[in-house]
Design goal:
- The chain is mainly α.
- It has helices at 2-13, 16-24, 26-46, 54-69, 75-96, 101-121, 136-149, 156-172, 176-192, 198-216, 222-232, 239-242, 247-252, 255-260, 284-292, 294-313, 319-331, 342-377.
- It has a domain at 101-245.
- 72% of the residues lie in helices and 0% in strands.
- The relative contact order is 0.11.
């Protein structure tokens, strides 16, 4: 079972089906996609079966049912996507229950290293790097998720090494979302210990490393040139350049369509660029309300809000959870693929189960305390 677990987890977290699709074509990509689902089913079939993720199941059911009412694409493809997602949802939640924070961290570290290796060995004219995750913003999310998991590790050397690699790789994606979340997480880390202020020094060291990498291989990135301009204070970078390609401008293009059909949305895929709908909304919250209407949107926001609140409740016990949850909640503001990128929804399910574990630990602790009190009173 351990072999099946790690192979399945690697297929999901390292985004291997998409890597195969881009590198070797649709044949191998489809094969690995089917293999991922098959491995999940095998793991579920042979493993222990516990309570399903009913909260996310209901949200997903409403999203696909209501979104399907106005779907205008190839119907068999919609049915296939729906069936595949629910197989994933049921089986992957059982997988999430068996993945420790250390295991999650190691696999994310492998993904982050793929970003750094791409920058060093496969320098591109585009100048942004993504490794196994194909797109820089998605790679930035996985790096910041990995960075957050380091706060759940016990061993200081592993924690420090992970923070260095995740930060360097995240910066190589040149994702503005990564930088904002990295700063926020490190501010939060000061609540754990004021000694964590040294992480900001590590950040400056890594930025210096970027300048070295740029000299050696050439990063060829407009955002890095803007960074150098800001540091040199040469007046060559304007506020308009820094705000170029703003997500808020993209969201604004979809507001009218949301108000046209707020109850049942505009149909599956209409806000995520599927079936010739053009550019996506790049916002999972807007994608849910835009494609399936107000009810799935409300439940989805409640779900994310619940995970945020409960992660905060268990901050002292598991500080990595609120950091991971902040990363996820903010990333969903810039990405519309919660239901299609398995490593994104897996991040939510893993946090959800860690919260359930913390609850159980509290219940056991309270029960033991009551038993001790009862024994002493007798």
């Amino acid at each position: 079972m351990q072999i099946i677990k790690y192979i399945t987890f690697a297929l999901i977290i390292l985004n291997l089906p998409s890597v195969a699709l881009v590198a070797f074509g649709g044949g191998l990509g489809s094969l690995l996609s089917y293999t991922t689902i098959l491995m999940l089913v095998l793991y579920y079939f042979f493993g222990e079966k516990t309570r399903p993720n009913w909260f996310l199941f209901v949200i997903s059911l409403l999203f696909f049912m209501i979104g399907g009412l106005q779907y205008v694409g190839y119907t068999p493809m919609f049915v296939f996507d729906t069936i595949k997602y629910f197989i994933y949802l049921i089986c992957a939640y059982e997988l999430a229950k068996k993945i420790s924070v250390a295991e999650y961290n190691v696999f994310l570290l492998i993904g982050a290293l793929s970003v750094a290796l791409e920058a060093l060995l496969l320098t591109s004219d585009f100048g942004r790097y993504s490794g196994f995750y194909i797109k820089p913003n998605e790679a930035g999310f996985m790096c910041i998720t990995g960075y957050a998991t380091t706060y759940g590790l016990k061993k200081a050397p592993a924690k420090l090494l992970g923070q260095f690699i995740f930060t360097l790789s995240g910066l190589l994606t040149f994702s503005r979302t990564f930088i904002v979340i990295w700063l926020l997480i490190n501010v939060i880390s000061l609540k754990i210990s004021i000694k964590n202020i040294r992480i900001f020094g590590l950040g400056f060291l890594i930025v210096a490393s970027l300048f070295f990498i740029d000299e050696v291989v050439g990063l060829n990135n407009p955002r890095f040139e803007q960074l150098k301009g800001l540091i040199d204070n040469d007046g060559s970078v304007s506020s308009e350049e820094l705000n170029e390609d703003s997500r808020s401008d993209t969201w604004a293009q979809f507001y009218d369509r949301i108000f046209e059909s707020p109850l049942i949305g505009s149909g599956y895929g209409s806000f995520t660029g599927k079936e010739g709908h053009g550019k996506g909304v790049h916002n999972s919250y807007l994608a849910v309300i835009g494609e399936a209407g107000i009810l799935p949107f409300i439940l989805f926001v409640i779900y994310i809000g619940y995970l945020l609140v409960m992660s905060l409740v268990y901050f002292n016990k598991k500080p990595n959870l609120i950091m991971q949850m902040i990363a996820l909640a903010l990333f969903l503001l810039a990405n519309h693929n919660f239901f299609t990128f398995y490593y994104v929804s897996f991040a939510a399910m893993w946090i959800q189960y860690q919260i359930e574990l913390a609850k159980k630990e509290d219940e056991i602790g309270n029960t033991n305390t009551l038993e001790v009190v009862a024994t002493e009173s007798n």
